[in-house]
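Margin note from the TA: students keep mixing up input and output lines. Inputs are the sequences; the output is the structure of the whole complex. Example:
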Amino acid sequence: MILEKEPLLPRNSISGFVSRTLFSRSWPVIDSIAFALVGLLLVLSIVGPWLAPHDPYAVDPLIALEPPSAANWLGTDDTGRDVLSRLLAGAPLTILAAVSVVVGATVIGVLIASIAALSPRWLDDAIMRVTEIFLSLPSLVLALGVTAVLRPSLSSIIIAMVAALWPPTARVTRNILRETMTSAYVESARVIGVSRLRLMLRHALPNSLDAVYVLASMEISGSIVMMSGLAFLGVGAPPPSADWGSMIASGQEFITTAWWISLFPGLAITIAALAFGLVGDAIRRINDPASRRTR
Amino acid sequence: MTSFVLRRLGHAVFALWGVMTLVFLMSRMIPGDIAAVAAGRLATPEQVEQMRVTMGLDRPIVVQYFDYLAKALTGDLGSSAYTHRSILVEIGEVLPSTIQLVLLGMFITIVVAVPLGIVAALNEGRARDVAIRVLLVLEGGIPIFWLAIMLRWIFGSIFGWFPITGENSLGAAPPDVTGFTILDSLLFGNAANLADSVSHLILPAVALTAPYISTLARNVRSNMLTAMKSDYITFAVSKGVPPRRVVMRHGLRSALGSTLTIIGMQFGWMVSGAVLVETVFGLQGIGSLMHKSIVNHDTFAVLGSVLVIGFVFVFTSMVVDLAQMLLDPRVRAAQGGKS
């Protein structure tokens, strides 16, 4: 019973995870920049639409295909819409959507992993086999298939991406959980009669979540690129949606005369993917179990 | 060893069955009237009814499922709702183009990424290593469809070094025998055709490689780091083996173990990357076919492509696993011990 009141290891919480990450001693300059950028992008993806200097959907043929100028900093597209305003309006559709995809896929992945790790061997095997089937299709192709079945919209892209991205999380988490369930402290809790469900929820899962956060943070960058790729192919929100992938697609045919329509959204995606990628990598390094064990 | 091969084969068969089942389930999740979707937008009510019977949609779902499996295994993926031709035939026509693009992309990836990874590992922590890593991070974040547009714009339109669209210039296409333009040019020994075919593929292939060079080089780097720190390397060095030989023969050979797995996975990923690149460059591959089918609401053609790409993916990962067992004594030992 003492064990139950005072767990052998401190329970990991999101706040602990965040503070350990933010107040880590090893802090290269490039990572600070990346963290700042990620912060900025997240803020922009919430308030961006209100910062737009022009109406991102206002069509004005008189100023179509204008190069970058004082009035339109990043130029205008083929229907005279301000590219900068559209970039800002599209930030939630790209970044916020990509982040929510990762959150959704992680929640589903962890849920399935927990069920598998709690189940008897045969059910665990069956669940993992199903996960493997999802993994035997490249995620972009799987997502394209799902979007083809559903009707093109932002929500069908999100559903498709969650369907494509939960399996890796489920597999990794399940392996970690299985390993944790055999560790000494879980064994000792089991010996004193703690139920299997409680073992999982109170002991194994909290101590496995760090790895899950790391995995999730590393997936965001790829999710942004994949999201915009799907939108580029036209399976996302229908026009006049200003998500960055569709903006690149619509500027494609004007690339020789009006390069700014495609160039800037692509730069935005690249910068966002880089910043999230670097942050994910930094989070992984800081929370690396190998280095934490020696702490 | 035989048991490992058999087990791997069994695994592949299971994965294929799984992919077929998944695609079947997806096709039955189409909202609205499935037969109407399969028959196409212009179909008359009679044609829709006929499609319902052909597809067996009036029968129980279990019967439909086994029917689907039987048809898929005999290569019957139905007909396109847009062109009304056999989906498998349409895919078969364009698949060589994609495989050719992906193979060229793989070649570029390996030729660039492996040396980069080795150089970075041998200079761990020094300026060269840092420079390579920054480069790889940068390149890994670029969306390939955007890179494709930019490459086409810069090197195709502005500099005019490469053609901007299609597989061949007008009149420069080799006779179509295998569907692989490069192979066909070689078969007929036509240098002009070969040059034309290759120049049409360079930009798409380079665009396709971007994220994969990054992944592969990082993998080689970390494997190489582990390998170079192991005892047998220290032993080889102290024995007086020349440094070049230590790196190439002792270090690299063991480092390439998991690299081979990654290369195999990348083949499948690149096929999906080709969806984005082919669309930009107007190449007639499975990617542009998928895109066209999506635009035309030809859902069953999309699902057919998903199935074929799944088959390619499962097949290549099996080949790579088997190759790895042949090449890597450690894998062989581990498998031999298990069985």
